[in-house]
Fold this sequence. Notes:
Number of strands: 5
Amino acid sequence: MLFLADSQSDIIFQNLNKLKNDGYQMDFDIVKISHHGSNKNTSMKLLNLFDSKKYLISTDGKKNSHPNLEVIAKIIKKESKHTKEIIFNYEHPKLEPFQSSSLKEKYNYSIIVQNEIIIH
């Protein structure tokens, strides 16, 4: 599990890249996206450094208009050997554009809204 808290993507990238170069695997069961899905805290460079089955974005969307649409799109577009599950703990109107079955099929992802996560 990788919990990114409110981290800045460049700092996390540097440190995870060091671990990767030391032989650590960068394949996680779940990644909690930084700062409630803020675009300033989530770069494509960072997302491409690791892989995951599940991406958690925790926010009710009332403050700072999180999650940013760009972050959801970055997760959807990133290459992965897994079907990506993007899990939210609240329903958001922002999720509507990403509920398209053709997009889900093309980019191999699902959108889930739930408050409990089961990891197998």
